[in-house]
Amino acid sequence: MTTESNMDSIDNLLRPILFKTNVHQAWLFLSLFGGLAVFGAMGLILGPIIMAIITALVHIYEMNYLEEKN
User: Hey, which of 13, 43, 54, 69 would disulfide with 39, CB 3.0 to 4.6 Å?
Assistant: First the structure.
């Protein structure tokens, strides 16, 4: 039982530090499994990285192009 409670404590401590992102958890979940399906084991890292890049590009597009039209 102590190992399980230690893992919960570590999870509660590290999750906010490691996942400082504006990406919704559902998108992060899909990017993990999508990356795993496309790239194999490296997809566990590449999937979320690609998702973060796409999210940043969409945000930049919204800031630069959509606000100019308003």
Answer: 43
Structure tokens belonging to residue 33: 């499994």
Containing structural domain, residue 47: 22-70
C-alpha to C-alpha distance for 61 and 35, rounded to whole angstroms: 24
Q: Is 70 helix (H, G, I), strand (E, B) or coil?
A: coil
Q: How far apart are CA 49 and CA 66, in angstroms?
A: 25
Note whether residue 8 is domain-resident: no
C-alpha–C-alpha distance, residues 39 and 68, integer Å: 38
pTM of the model: 0.63
